[in-house]
Amino acid sequence: MGEKLNEEKLNTSPYELDGKPPLKEAIPLGIQHVLAMFVGNVTVPIIVAGAIGLTVEDRAFLIQCAMLIAGVATLLQVYRIGPVGARLPIVMGTSFGFVPIAISVGNTYGLSAVFGAALIGGLFEMVLGSFLKPLRKLFPPVVTGTVLLTIGLYLIPTGMNYVAGGVGKPDFGSFSNLFLAGLVFVTILIFNQYTKGMFKVASILIGMVVGYIVAIPMGKVNFDAVVNAPWFSIPMPLEYGITFVWPAIFAMCLMYVVTAIETVGDISGITVGGAKREATDEELRGGIMADGLGSVLAALFNAFPNTSFSQNVGIVSLTGIMSRFVVLIGAVFLILAGLFPKLGAIIAVMPTSVLGGAAIIMFAMIMTSGIAMVSRDLSQRNLLILACSLGIGLGVGNVPGVLGAFSETTKLILGGSGGMVIAAFLAVILNVVLPKGTADSKPICVSEETKIEA
């Protein structure tokens, strides 16, 4: 009887999937999601624009488009349109995984070819998503857990670069940056573990706000970008045109396969971390299709391919807040930031080290979610899949020169995202080809206490 009451209480909670917390709670919780992904979302157009020689004005325009499309794509995920959308609290944003390919294609064929390849690739991912049900057997917990674990391990160095102030910054690794990151880190821990209610679930937002405020008198915040940003601007579609080049399309489509696998891992991370259950076929299919459609819209509106943002999966795992309404608030804020550039600029000038203090916790939560999924069945076979996938994937990611004999396109695909591509494909392939013997299917290292609890 007690369990039934607890379940009924959970289902009526404003923090569960269809719950609607009051606006005084939903707004800061939604902004918390935006703050977590904002730097990652705008960094991609900054990197690509700089690498292919675009002007400062082009860079600002691409950032504006990235914010607008991230908000629209998030709405697609949160509130399903037909079969498109996972109907889960998933935050979308510009994918880091496409950066090497976008730079290579942009320098060779121009930005119009990048958007053309991204458009075709997005349609290709939608087709993949529509056929997910017969492919679901390729993604058991050992595969999705391995992908999640790899994502977390891949992102940890990025988080540490944020902590130090951002790669290439003159004060990289300075005591001031480490102090700000440490302040945010400790503030999040204190509010998450020693407070209740709104203070607990908004611990990440509180930590970053505290860091932001402290950074101002330290001279770490330059508000010139806020002053110079226009009040209102509507991004026009196809500003750079669109062309279709087959080598670029092929490379993009291969990367979209990896993005689909990553999205499966993120969706599984949200359902496991927030709802304590496996993702359904409908959620996975709709999530991948929304990934694809979001990238199609991105290509039309001058933004780079979109995907689910793993750091926001970490927020759901840490806070337990599954409300789609909260993410809706975040999506609206992103759209407003895309239409009112001054609003986005206020967040854009936030010191990178402030984000780093929160990113370390969020990225580590993704990693531990992967560990939790894999540990459900620690059979000898599954341990071998995990070991081979991580060993080779992370090995290539840390020593990219091992791919020196391959073509540049192959190196971009296999070596991209810190070896995550190889780790994901290996996990899928090994799960298919390795035999599932009776002896190997039994978990190893299971204590008597665990057996009793089971």
TrEMBL record:
Molecular functions (GO terms): xanthine transmembrane transporter activity
Membrane topology: Multi-pass membrane protein
InterPro entries for the chain: NCS2, UacT-like, Xan_ur_permease
Pfam families tied to this protein: Xan_ur_permease
Keywords from the UniProt entry: Cell membrane, Membrane, Transmembrane, Transmembrane helix, Transport
One GO cellular component, as annotated: plasma membrane
Keyword Zinc-finger assigned: no
Chain segments annotated as transmembrane: 34-54, 60-79, 86-103, 109-131, 138-160, 172-191, 198-218, 238-258, 325-348, 354-374, 383-406, 412-434
Keyword Transmembrane included in the entry's annotation: yes
Protein's cellular compartments: Cell membrane
Assigned protein family: Belongs to the nucleobase:cation symporter-2 (NCS2) (TC 2.A.40) family.
PANTHER family according to UniProt: PURINE PERMEASE C1399.01C-RELATED, URIC ACID TRANSPORTER UACT
The name this protein goes by in its record: Uracil permease
Organism: Desulfuribacillus stibiiarsenatis
